[in-house]
Design a protein that fits this description.
flat
């Protein structure tokens, strides 16, 4: 199960796309979700991080990326009045 979970994250695939060799994807997902809810993954991360830090394998420097990703104006969720419904009603009256 752990190998299937690692494979899924490493490959960047959806749960449904797990190879059949790992068994049903629903079982892997359920197992992963249960371990996450119990805090098992947090404990594993803490243990591995502490062990790597004790051996001096972790460089605690921080890198900040200042990249700006601009979205197209239509990609926002802002509502704007375009008069669309009024135009549709007027064109419907003209057609009658």
């Amino acid at each position: 199960m752990i190998e299937a979970i690692i494979y899924r994250y490493r490959a960047g695939i959806a749960w449904r796309d797990l190879p059949e060799v790992f068994g049903p994807w629903q079982s892997v997902w359920t197992w992963h979700r249960r371990m996450a809810a119990e805090g098992t993954w947090d404990e594993v991360l803490d243990t591995l991080t502490a062990a790597a830090d004790a051996e001096g394998l972790i460089d605690w420097s921080v890198s900040v990326d200042a990249t700006i990703a601009r979205a197209h104006q239509h990609a926002t969720n802002a509502t704007r009045l375009t008069g669309g419904s009024i135009e549709l009603q007027e064109s419907g009256r003209r057609a009658a």
